[in-house]
Amino acid sequence: MPRLRSLLLLFICVWLPSSLLAEPAIWDKHSKRLELAQFVDYWQEDAQTTLLDVQALPDQAWAEVGDESASFGYGNDVYWFRFQVSNVTGNEAVNFMEIGYPVLDHIEVYLPGTAEALVLGDKQPFYDRPIHHRNFVVPMLLPPGETISVYLRVDTTSSMQVPLTLWDRDAFYAADQGRSMLEGLYYGVVLVMILYNLFVFMAVGERSFLYYVGYITTMPLFLASLHGVGFQYLWPEGTWWNDQSIIVFLNLVIVFGGAFSIRFISVTPEMHPWLNRWTMAMIMVAGLMAAAGLFVPYKHMILPTILVAAVGCSTMLVLSVVRWVKKTRPPAITRSHGCSCCLAVLCWH
Asked: Going by C-beta distance under 8 Å and a sequence separation of 6 or more, which residues neighbour residue 235?
């Protein structure tokens, strides 16, 4: 029995940790797109470390990411990631590795056969990227019949999310064309809505239309900043503004959304004094946050901004529910132009 317990302990200490590590990804002749999360291991850096130090780590130091993409939230920690890919096609495969979170600050990619790291991130000018794409895309060649190892080091003040996808080059461009068409359609529709409501405001002078124009302008600008489209097309050299724009535009969404809600559904001090004061306070806080976003670094602003946005969206939902339950009729000017404004809201959502 003691001998059996010793063998069992040896099994647990030696075999089990290594079995928890990810297996190599298999790229075969039918592969077009491969999500890499289940094949990725990670290690949290405890001091400034080189690639040689990381490669010398024992397997027990690494942990498997799992089926979901790597996501560790906000913090100051630096993470290393590694994965292996085996090419069993019998031919050299031309692939792209896509990191699908465009607001990561600093990424070092270590490919086999290269002495220096490929440095990516939204702190680098957009046109320094090997592939000019809103996400981080790295060309990779997979030799036939070989298994390669790839290492990444990620340091960011944004949320630590590292979704990794391995693409066949032609499949990537085909899929990206479809995504680009849908995004172009979305931004085109938004532009038409902005111009339409702006002309209506100029024609009738109703301020709710102006607030709505502000809302439907800042919302797509926020989404463009978050998804890397703004960095790609609007400010490719503006590395500082690329982070700060997320803060500024998200807070302005709350400012204009709150002002529009007060005006359009008549949350006046006479009808709803407490709701009016709360919403006005929310608008002022969001306005101050938007102004602070021009001076205060992103890492200090992102969590308060998320809190303000959550409270602001909840407030606007509560305002709508209360006004619907009360069934209080709005003023005549708002009522007379409510149809076109409601049509715009329905188109937006």
From this structure: 241, 242, 245
- Tens of pLDDT along 55-80? 999 999 999 988 778 889 998 899 99
What distances in angstroms separate CA 84 from CA 30, 39, 150, 306, one per listed residue?
Answer: 18, 7, 6, 36
**Alpha-carbon separation of residue 161 from 69, 102, 192, 249, 262 (angstroms):** 7, 10, 34, 22, 36
Query: How does DSSP classify residue 39?
Result: G
Alpha-carbon distances of 261 from 317, 338, 346, rounded to whole Å: 9, 13, 15
Q: Are strands 25-27 and 79-87 parallel, antiparallel or unpaired?
A: parallel
Same domain, 131 and 210: no
Angstrom distance (rounded) from CA 144 to CA 89: 6
pLDDT score at 343: 33
Q: According to the 3-state scheme, what is the secondary structure of 224-242? A: HHHCCHHHHHCCCCCHHHH
Structure tokens at 329: 């009729």
Provide the whole-model pTM.
Answer: 0.84
Quick one: angle between helices 298-326 and 273-292, nearest 10?
A: 160
Number of folded domains in the chain? 2
Neighbour tally for 319: CB within 10 Å: 21
Q: Which domain holds residue 262?
A: 205-348
Q: Does residue 29 fall inside a structural domain?
A: yes
